[in-house]
Each structure stands twice: as structure tokens, then as C-alpha cells.
Amino acid sequence: MTPETYNHIKQLIEDSGVIHLNGDTKKVFQNFDFSEETILITGAAGSIGSELAKHILACDYKKLILIDIAESPLYDLIKAFENEDLTKIDCLLLNINDAESVEFLFETYKPTLIFHAAAYKHVPLMEAHPYEAVKTNILATKLLADLAIKYHAKKFIFISTDKAVNPISIMGITKYIAENHIIQLAQKSHTQFVITRFGNIIGSNGSVLPVFKKQIDYGLPLTITSKTVARYFIDKHKACHLILKIATFNKSEGSVFTFNMGEPIKLIDLANCFIDLYASKHDKIAIKIIGLRPGEKQTEDMISKNETLIATAHEDIFLVKQNKENPLKNTNLSKLLDINPYLSPQEIKRLLLSYM
To answer: Distance (Å, rounded) from C-alpha 235 to C-alpha 341?
Structure first.
């Protein structure tokens, strides 16, 4: 690991908030103008959803609706915001797979700006539960997008992932299919549909750094999949700032964007740096190689061979352009309505692969 790589990883670890090397650094939030917008965030109690909410609270906005199905994290979010102007914030316990509840939500609030962050994201877990991945990552996305059009929302921002690029996992394939559906809606709808695609959020719920911290706290070895596996990382504060910046773009600027993620970081380097920064100098922390889990890749990609990156006016935001010689396949999602819990994971994955 070069000194430059070490310093980059060190900064990422500090930005993650999992440990504080220089005290709790105060974050700077930019005041975007959303004064005319009724904003809906799905998955609002998650890492990206809650950080988006914090950024929006620093902005001018008309109304903020925060929804999540996770009861305890949603309650924590409510407590965190109890000193804000609660006349402008509604927090709702709501399942985005429940069509009747989601329709009621749109009919009641008529959101004009939607950030769709809710998703099942853990790759090995979704390999074992593809039915749930299809319902949440694809069908609920379709439901929300259809209602955005029906109720004349101005913009719909879909939070995607690098795992949707050249996907091999259930999680990646479901996000790929959802991306394609959103892209096709963007081409024909008055609602502006936008996709933001980026890599792993460093320090997010269930991600590698909190796991490392717990392993060190309990005197366990750090577990990584291999010495060569590498991932793109970005801190949630920067990611959410860029998402909100993209939310200010007009329709002519494009519909699929990704961020400047830097070079992929090897998990072995991340583990060694974390040990150096967090563990006591007297602790001897081992690193245990456990091998790739179901659905995992050695490395991820930010764009496919059918896409090209184009610079934008913002140095950290790139437009992802589809190559004309490789048009998107038509995504008729009706076949997915036949997926049920009685089908095996293998059967469901075969059906999903037919959309590739």
C-alpha cells in the first residue's frame, strides 16, 4: 500500500463516522432551493435516506415526507429530528410493496420530488431471498414510478448501485432491471426520471467498517473475502450532496449519472488501515480470508461496455451515455408478477436473467 493509498483510505474511514480520529467534525451542508417542493424519501431511515434528509433540512423546502418499513430505525430518525420544524416533516411507517398504502401516500401528499433510496442491498442475503428482492427492488420501484407519473411529480431520483453494472447477483440484476425500466420511462414521460449510480457507502449500516469495528471490539479476527477483492467507496455525506446537486439538473442534462469514485480499494488494505487507526498498538489483530460469498464479484464496474462516461460541469459527476449501437432491451415487467415464494432461488434467477 502506497502512502497516497493509505492517506486516501484514512480519510474515507474518518469521513465514514465509524470512528473519529480528529473529533466529531462538523459537516457543511449546501442550501439547495427546494422551496416549492414536497419531497418524498423512501428508505428514509437507511444510510442514504437519513443523510439525504439531514441535507434537505439545511435547505429551503416546502414539505418533507420520510417513509420506511423498519420500525426502530424510523423511530430513531424521528427522535433525531424532534428539534426541527415538525410542521414541515411527516415520518410514516410504510411498506413500499403495499400498493394501497403507496397510492394513499401519493394521493394525500402529491410529492413533487421523489428520492427512491429504499432497496434490499445485501448481496448474499438476496441470493437466498430473490422473491423479496424482486418485490422491493423492481416491482415497488415500478409502483412508485407509475404513481409519480400519475400524480404529476416533477422529478424521480432512483438511487442505484455499481452492482447493477454487468450484474451476476440477484441484487445486481434486480437493480439493473429497475434501472432499465427507469431509463425507458425517462424517454417518454413528463416526469423527469434520473438514476444516480455509485459504489459502496463507506460505514453504512451492515457494511464492512462497522463489522470490522465490532470484530476488533470482541477480539475477533477481521474477515475479508480475499486479498485481491476490491470495491469502490464513497462517504455518504459526499454522495448525498452529489445526489441533491443532480436533483437540480434539468431534463436535457441526461438521465443516468455516476460519481467520481476514485480507484477501487482492496479490502485487505482497508482492513490493515483500520487496524492501524483503531486497534490498540498492543493488540494483535489477525485477518482471516473467508472467500467470496454467493453473488459476490472480485471487482465492480461503474459502467458497462455499452456505456460511455461524459464529463459534466461538476468535476465529481459524470453522465452515463448509452451507446447507440447497443439499445436497451424492452423491459416488460409483467412476467415478474408470476414470481412467488414457492419458486426456488434458481428458478427465479433464471427468469431474471431473461431480462439481461
So the answer is: 36
236 counts as catalytic: no
Q: Where are the alpha helices (DSSP H) in 218-300?
A: 236-247, 267-278
Q: Quick one: which of 123, 130, 157, 125 has its CA closest to 141?
A: 157
With 0-12 / 13-18 / 19 or more C-beta atoms within 10 angstroms meaning exposed / middle / buried, residue 125 is middle
Contact 41, 243 (CB under 8 A): no
Name the nearest CA neighbour of 176 among 291, 320, 43.
320
Give the Cβ contact number of residue 148 at 10 Å: 25
Q: What is the pTM of this model?
A: 0.95
Q: Does an H or E element contain 68, and which?
A: strand 60-68
Cell numbers describing residue 220: 475477533
- Tell which residue, 245, 240, 261, 228, has the closest CA to residue 41: 240
**Rounded Cα gap, residues 217 and 160, in angstroms:** 32
Query: Any idea what DSSP says for residue 138?
Result: I
Catalytic residue among 54, 121, 135, 163: 163
Q: Which ranges in 204-332 belong to alpha helices (H)? A: 208-217, 236-247, 267-278
pLDDT tens sequence across 48-99? 999 999 999 999 999 999 999 999 999 999 999 998 888 999 999 999 999 9
State the Cα–Cα distance between residues 77 and 94, nearest whole angstrom.
Answer: 14
**Could you tell me the residue ranges of all domains in the chain?**
28-205+234-266+303-353
Encode pLDDT of 210-267 as tens digits: 999 999 999 899 999 999 999 999 999 999 999 999 999 988 888 999 999 999 999 9
At the top level of CATH, the class of 28-205+234-266+303-353 is alpha beta
Q: Work out whether the CA dihedral 338, 339, 340, 346 comes out positive or negative.
A: positive
